[in-house]
Amino acid sequence: MDHQLVIAQNREALEVTLKFGERALREPAWTPGAASEAAAELANNEVGQNGPWGERPARTAYAAANLMMTAVLDDLGTLRQLLGNPMPVIGPTVVARSAVEIASTVWWLMEPGIGVRRRVCRELVLSLGSARRAKQVAQDMEASQAVADALQQESRVLQRIADLNVGQPASGNRIVIEGEQAESATAGTAKMLKAALRANASAESVYRVYSAVTHGEVYGLMNFMAPGVSSNGEAMLHWHLDPDVLDSTIQVGVVAFREAYRRIHQVMGWGKLGRDLWEIKLGKIFNGA
Fold first, then answer.
1. Summary mean pLDDT of the chain
2. 252: Cβ–Cβ under 8 A, 6 or more apart, which residues?
3. Which of 90, 137, 178, 186 is most solvent-facing, going by the fewest CB within 10 Å?
């Protein structure tokens, strides 16, 4: 595979994806289609301790998805910047892993057909988990102000849970609210990528390679060592980014954005024209049309 061709194709794919994503998701409050799932969720009949839910709980879930998709687009923009000269060897893989993990969380949160109560519970699971992880890190670092801030955040989420009259979670990091529990990063990524990858490819094994690189594990880093010959003719290994690895890295990041966006699009009931044109452009880039 030609290295320069890989760079050119993937830079173009990132550019069209960034333009599409910024245009499709730029509104701070997403406006659902009239007959969409999201419209029905905003008009829900749920009742909390202080009266009807109204739109806010569902809109909070959509806002969380919007925030995370903004981060995915930022990662894709970083990947585009890394396709320069000289190019870092493991940088694209580390950034792509971030994009894939964030997108898989959006993919879970915005699952079509689950209804407003389950979606709101999933957002609460994510928010409470985030607060408790922040508290744990702050405690490990013995950062007293950060611990206090995290405790306040946790308290606010628990109050929201009580106000909405949904099931109270137990203490600890295993958070379950009315049966909703976030997947592990590995399991969530595997499920999201399963439909997008070839039948003989393991999404979970793909993710583990990306995760291994990020955590500095030897078997992950060895993917970037290639055989060569030293100046005195001796066989040696050298630090190298194979074009196939670069190609798959960028495409996995783009696919992660696509899979998460498809779910958002379905729940929101938006028109298909913009999405279809973007996917056609991607097909032409990678198929050489």
1. 89
2. 96, 100, 193, 206, 210
3. 137
